[in-house]
Amino acid sequence: MKTARNLDHLPPYLFAQIDAKRDALRAQGVEIISLGIGDPDLPTPPHIVEAMAEAIRNPDNHRYPDYAGSLAFRTAACDWMRQRFGVELDARREALALIGSKEGIAHIHTAFVNPGDYVLAPSIGYPVYSGGATLMHAHSHFLPMSAQNGWLASFDEVPAEVLSRARILFLGYPNNPTGAVATPEYFDQAIAFCHANDLLLVHDNAYSEISFDGYRAPSILERPGAREVAVEMFSLSKSYNMTGWRIGFAVGNETAIQALGTVKNNLDSGQFTAIQDAAIAALSGPQDCIAKMSALYQRRRDLVIDALWAIGLSCEPPKATIYVWARVPDGYSSVEFTEKLLSEAHVVVTPGSGYGPDGEGYIRISLTTPDEQLLEAVRRIKESLHG
Ligand code: MLT
User: Does the global pTM surpass 0.85?
Assistant: First the structure.
């Protein structure tokens, strides 16, 4: 049986690959500590679980969901955008429920990219930006990123022949995996670049709520001119410990929202309305869980950064996200060091190169593991490095 040619060009999903290696070792009885995927260890806050318990008993919710998401959910998302960022949106025209932001990021390609086109993706970024292009028989052009430029993807030197066939610019700040944050000036430059080159700007804002040291992440939609070129993808996964629920939303440019909605209503039938009801409780209920979570991750960040410096792995404290981005020791590639840690320390981390070419030389450590396991992981890493 022949599968489609574009599957031959699609690498296995980074975390599916890592999970397979982890599970193989676990099956041999090895006790693994996973600092790989960003999957919060704490449960979803109780008021959200309670809302779900009630919503699941409502027979109206047992029928097909609204394709675009229930109006109540889209309204809650827009109210949250107003309260959190001061951004006014029309729930009927400028908002769409997603089955997690990953789904929206993957499907936006279908709405905007033709075979042979390009997407502009950060050279270190969420793998779905380029994976979605491959699935459309399109190409990814990677925008250089480096520690020197604060991990801000540079769109200054895109070759003219790429730019003429480019359809989407993907950005995501606070950034997965580097933890970098963007300045308002950087967002303004990106918006101007998209205006000048007729590009859709897709801003992945999945980590907006997890921030440290007093930093508050913005929405790109706060910036002037954004609404004409940009959509922003939000996820409830990290903000409300809801990775398993698969719920998020897209907001912003009406043409892009409607086009994504058309793709989705042909491909899926929306997210279970009871989950949308629970998400309404998350977005419109008490928000103190977010501050508590950020405080927890900040403590873990400091704990891990101190421990990594103590064993000679250099890293900077991120202002946001649930990740620490650290240099691998001299003499190792990202994958070699990741494999050493898995086989000798029984610790899973993510190789930086899995996020794109400029990620080589780095690993990503997820902070979604209890403190004692984080410290035990660093102790094991030290032992495997220094004996
Ligand atoms: C991550 O760890 O980068 C994400 O949680 C993975 C994902 O969303 O697939």
Answer: yes
